[in-house]
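Appendix C reproduces, verbatim, an entry submitted by the partner laboratory led by Prof. M.T., so that reviewers can inspect both the input and the predicted structure.
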Amino acid sequence: MKRRVLYFEEPYRVAAREEPIAPLADDAVLVATIVSAISAGTELLFYRGQVPAHMSVDANIHALAGTVTYPLAYGYACVGRVVELGARVSPEWRDRLVFAFQPHASHFICATDELMPLPEKIAPEVAAFLPNMETAVNFVMDGAPRLGENVCVLGQGVVGLLTTALLAHMPLARLIAFDHFPMRRALALELGAHAAFDSTAQDAIAHARAMFQHDGADLTYELSGNPDALNAAIALTGFSGRVVIGSWYGEKRAPLDLGGTFHRSRIRLLSSQVSTLAPELTGRWTKARRMDVAWQMLARVNVARLITHRVPLEQAATAYTMLDTQPQETLQVLLTY
């Protein structure tokens, strides 16, 4: 029996390879993938060859062990159905719909403790958003927005829009989104932002600050993936405000202006990444508890509206080209099997 696996062959080239499926261990299951989500912010770094070579692919995901070398199987949002059981696996797993942090592939083998059964009424396409929703939950937890605060979110890709949607459930004074592309700004407003500005407009920061009842934002999220945007995040943030940096810039660099108002403003720059929990939360929170919240938020937020394309695995090269060259028209791209 064969399976099809997506490989990043080299920068700017992906291809689906056919390869044998390994024998099934007694304690493992075989899953046939239904859909997998491309996480554009992270995967485009691999696609463009912008990931530092010394890094591990992802030390926190068993299926992504190893260093960044091409060709590379990557991805971490697979939803499928269990189609075969190892000899020691309980029969209750057969035919279950499951989520797994696995690379893009038509089939994969893993232990059951690496699978998450889909909750009732969560469709496979919705479940594919789970990693990005968990990331958005983590950003909100790390930023700790307070009642009546002014909050800005720079970058309205999938993670930025999910973060905006979660923040919109909170009693904030103002929630302002920034993105260059009109489609994404419109979605931010649909998801609850009070205003959405073109991040490239010269007067965007001034217009946003004019909406605040106090000088500057209390909390700003930099989720654009563009290191240049960090200067804008600082400029939006008021005295003693917080800037949560959720973007992964890879090898991209940009000058950072810390010699202006930042120096006297006591602004705090906070790194936020979903693979860990903030130490101050670990007395009450675990990754499992945070994941439970992510599932609950998938049931509350209409994430399906963020899907712009469904592409068969064999045409994955087209999907990555679109994400790379037509970001104004693409948002969540799903690979189908």
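The longest helix spans residues 130-143. Additional entries are available on request from the coordinating office.
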